[in-house]
Amino acid sequence: MARRRQPGQETVAELIDGTYLAYNAARLREACQLFTEKMLEPDVTVGLSITGALTPAGLGMSALIPLIEGGFVDWIISTGANLYHDTHFGLGLAMHRGNAQESDVVLREEGVVRIYDIFFDYDVLLSTDAFFRKIITGKEFQRSMSSAEFHNLAGKYVREREKTLGLGQKSLLSAAYSSAVPIYTSSPGDSSIGMNIAALALDGNRLVLDPNKDVNETASIVLDAKRGGGRSGVMILGGGSPKNFMLQTEPQIQEVLGIDEKGHDYFLQITDARPDTGGLSGATPAEAVSWGKIDPDRLPDAVVCYLDSTVALPLLTSYAFARHEPRPLKKNPRLDRPRSIIRIRSCRSIGRAAARLERPINGALI
Fold this sequence. Notes:
Number of domains: 1
Strand content: 5-15%
Strand order of the largest sheet: 7-2-1-9-10-11
CATH architecture: 3-Layer(aba) Sandwich
Shape: globular
CATH class: Alpha Beta
Largest sheet: 6 strands, parallel
Helix content: 40-55%
């Protein structure tokens, strides 16, 4: 198993292939190889879910934006917090390395906010809030829309601010807008973006992020990939609500809409969550098979790497670009209403769905 090597002379990809041979190092190697050799095939639609404070740590610029621009990610589900803190960079606001042992009482007194060892001024929050409140009052936001359409519109304004400030492209929202990659959030109210939307609603603002649109659009993306002769792959950073929202696309197709399907083809997760506590974050791909989320025939093409995403993601990104050419962008010109919604309606079996609703529960019909 062991190989002789010349330390300091390997590329990242060579280091991973040649020395990550066992335990979670081997799982990271398998994850890199699965992503690069199978998930990046031209007919695979790749979904990415993001949890944990990755964008404040700079991983938007160092990994997520390159993956989008390289055509390696086709759609995203993220926590709202990652998108909110990502916006700081697009507005030219500063984040700093800090000491996690500093007194939080003192930091609060001095107007400094802490995300473990990342520090930033409280005014960063206020300035970002003001930016979102300003754009949300615009005419094009005065209606109900999916979270993907909202993030696309917001990304347009972040991109304009970046250009005005001469920053280059530093925001994930901005990059997703430029590449027409839809970004959904599974819990729209669970972030400062949602909090500002709620506050403006008190004053009569008519923006509503519609979760029904999100559920149907994400399911339609997956069904369109499969019915179009392709495959669906998921890369999950962390777990939580975005993981479930991404994986529930298949139960939505099969269980709820009554459409014949088998599950996602490829599953790649980077997590530090254990499977034995019953939480969704640690649930294995084998468990997901029982829900119809993963195709049982493709279970060998599933990798769980028990590692911090801030360690694994930069390595996986570097490996992917070293081993695979960029893919053409799968641009979706109508983020508010994917064309695949038409497919999901045409594939839906009303009879099967109705039959399920009439199944007896404890001898009685609900």
